[in-house]
Amino acid sequence: MKKILKTAAAVGLLAAAMNLTAFAGEWKSDQTGWWYQKDDGGYLKDGWNWVDGKCYYFISDGYCLVNTTTPDGYTVDGSGAWIINGVVQTQGAEGAQNNGNEAAADAGQNTEAPAGDQLALNGLTFTVPVGFVKDDAASDESSTYFTNGKGVIAISSKDIEDAEQYGTMLDEYSEPILDLAMSQIGTPTAKDAKQLPTGIWYCYQYDAEQIMKIQGTVYIYARISNGRVQMVMFMGDLYGLTPDDVMMSYLR
User: What is the pLDDT of residues 40-62, one digit of tens each?
Assistant: First the structure.
């Protein structure tokens, strides 16, 4: 289950944090590698871009990375396309290409975080609820996972590359950007805007059967704030808490 949630977070964060503009142009190559030249004579560079429905990572001089792990930890194949578990990820596809359930991480991989401890998570502060521990095996530099054995809370915060160049556009168009990003996970069964102590978040609900092949509901709260894409995901038994309870009382 945690591996599936981690994949969902990667899809949503990556889609929202990358440049979502559609470019016209053509692929070109030389002895060094491939690059994508836009119709205005410039070229794609400095991060992720969708090209013809697939996602590629371009370095500062414009060349596309191939057969490697990108600087932010994702995998690309021999053509440069982003892959998960060997499967090319396509724009608009519903969810990640995963099958079955993943067992919970062994207790030895978890870090005890006593209830009430406050953890700083790249622009957010999270108070750990009673019964939850940090899952070190699932967590990485942009996402932190907590589990009680039956439920999962995943908090993700990723800086948007070159956010300052967009000025106020990130705030003005945050909702459609997030809608597009969340569509990479699947089709939400419900969506709502919620005013919380930390500001306005957009709450997306998903049928877990549709996107993960397991029973239940997945809740994802998302926003763009201070040049970051932030997501909080909930699934399973939260020991009497609701997702709104956690967002209202445990997150700052």
Answer: 678 888 888 778 778 888 999 99
